[in-house]
Design a protein that fits this description.
By secondary structure, the chain is an alpha+beta fold. Helix content is about 30%, strand content about 25%. The two termini are about 35 Å apart.
Length: about 140
């Protein structure tokens, strides 16, 4: 099945296991190429071209279309983040949010905006998952 695909999001994650909770073994940029070794449904067993790193990537972060500009170019900075790509897949984007705000002026969006500003490091997330016994065996924080 060996075929090449390109990262279509600003930052793609190569994970140790085929799950969004899997340890990130490498971060790829828009346009980086991977070799697909096995198709496992929504997750692809991949090898990163250039570094040789093996792992899994979700199909939504990859495309077979030719990427015409290089990572770091001004055009790449305009691409969607992984979060934006996921939201768009659910039918949510900035225009939808603006329309929702206009239709619901009585709602308190300041709290939501504050929540969106909170962040958790990958190490903190892994510790939380490990303590809650939600993490796969062998994937300690």
């Amino acid at each position: 099945m060996d075929r090449s695909m390109s990262v279509q999001v600003r930052q793609g994650h190569v994970r140790k296991t085929p799950t969004f909770l899997g340890i990130i073994v490498e971060r790829l940029s828009y346009g980086d190429k991977v070799l697909i070794l096995k198709d496992k449904g929504d997750w692809l067993d991949i090898k990163v071209e250039g570094t040789g790193t093996r792992g899994f990537m979700h199909i939504s972060a990859l495309t077979t279309k030719k990427i015409v500009f290089n990572p770091g170019d001004e055009e790449a900075k305009k691409t969607a983040t992984s979060d934006e790509f996921a939201l768009a897949g659910k039918g949510f984007n900035e225009n939808v949010e603006d329309r929702f705000r206009a239709d619901n002026p009585h709602l308190n969006f300041a709290g939501i905006d504050r929540m969106e500003g909170y962040g958790v490091s990958e190490k903190q997330m892994r510790q939380f998952l490990f303590k809650g016994q939600l993490i796969f065996k062998g994937e300690n924080p």
